[in-house]
Design brief:
Helix content is 57%, strand content 9%. With 292 residues, it is an alpha/beta fold. InterPro entries: Cbl-bd_cap, Cobalamin-bd_sf, DNA-bd_dom_put_sf, MerR-type_HTH_dom, MerR_fam, Meth_synthase_dom.
Length: 292
């Protein structure tokens, strides 16, 4: 069972903390626990309730109506709405609930329906990425437990690997070679896997080296493959003080390649790229680069 602050609920549901407090006082619709210092704490069931209320409100229900519903009635209304085509924000809510409940069947239904309708790439960009971004800070702070994190990331990882396995890459005269890796100690592979898919979908060759690669192994692969581009994501490793030296080392040691950098410790940070380094601030940047 996870614990959430009122700010966590605001981030996950899109409902302002001030509004949640008003609902609590006026409608008694949610009853948080309190710490010894009187700080509100919410559990998984509270989060599910708020997400379901958010879904109903987005579909025209008034809070005064929702507050009079029993738990079964509220769930029935949510299921009725869920059987229709949901907007992207609604589907992100639904994914969050499937994560809380460790509900693989619900996750599969949401993702498979979207892949069939919009394609794998659009599903990742418009649903999976915003979902991972929304809950990412909660993983870092520990508001979401390891079981829930591992459950959802492994399911998404399986989808990406299956999609990559189904790709047929045509080598064209314009095809480039990309070397993909994560720094030693870095294990957050989701973005790297999707970058692999994006690049291959545009008929480029990928040398995929995966997680936690020592620097001397990057040097070995560089000499062997002479890639046009080297792509990496710096999320938690190296530490913030060591990111700039690491970036400089990549640029200096691999001067014949263009270094592509992304990740939490790069995007929006005070990183000074070298002449042969490009910062990938969003996935669309990589898509645009790989399209040429």
């Amino acid at each position: 069972m996870s614990n959430y602050s009122i700010r966590d609920l605001e981030q996950l549901s899109g409902i302002k903390a001030h509004t949640l407090r008003i609902w609590e006082q006026r409608y008694n619709i949610i009853a948080p626990k309190r710490t010894d210092t009187n700080i509100r704490l919410y559990d998984d069931q509270d989060l599910k309730l708020v997400l379901n209320i958010s879904l109903l409100k987005e579909h025209g229900y008034k809070i005064s109506e929702i507050s009079k519903m029993t738990s079964d009635e509220l769930n029935a209304e949510v299921m009725t709405i869920s059987d229709r085509k949901l907007s992207y924000p609604d589907q992100i809510h639904a994914l969050t609930i499937s994560m809380i409940d460790l509900d693989e069947e619900r996750f599969e239904k949401i993702i498979s329906t979207n892949i069939l309708q919009f394609g794998f790439e659009n599903t990742m960009i418009h649903i999976i990425y915003p979902f991972l971004s929304r809950i990412g800070t909660l993983w870092v702070t520990g508001s979401i437990g390891p079981a829930q994190e591992h459950f959802i990331t492994n399911l998404i990882r399986q989808k990406v690997i299956v999609a990559i396995d189904g790709q047929v890459v045509k080598q064209l005269p314009t095809s480039k070679k990309f070397l993909l890796f994560l720094p030693e100690g870095e294990l957050h592979e989701m973005g790297l896997l999707f970058a692999n898919y994006i690049i291959r979908a545009r008929n480029h060759k990928v040398v995929y080296l995966g997680q936690s690669l020592p620097f001397n192994e990057i040097e070995f692969a560089y000499k062997l493959h002479k890639p046009d581009y080297i792509f990496t994501a710096i999320t938690s490793v190296p530490s913030s003080n060591d990111v700039q030296p690491y970036v400089d080392k990549l640029a200096a040691n691999f001067p014949q390649s263009t270094i592509l950098l992304t990740g939490y410790q790069v995007v929006g940070q005070d990183i000074q790229p070298s002449e042969n380094t490009i910062l990938i601030n969003k996935i669309e940047d990589l898509m645009q680069l790989a399209a040429h």
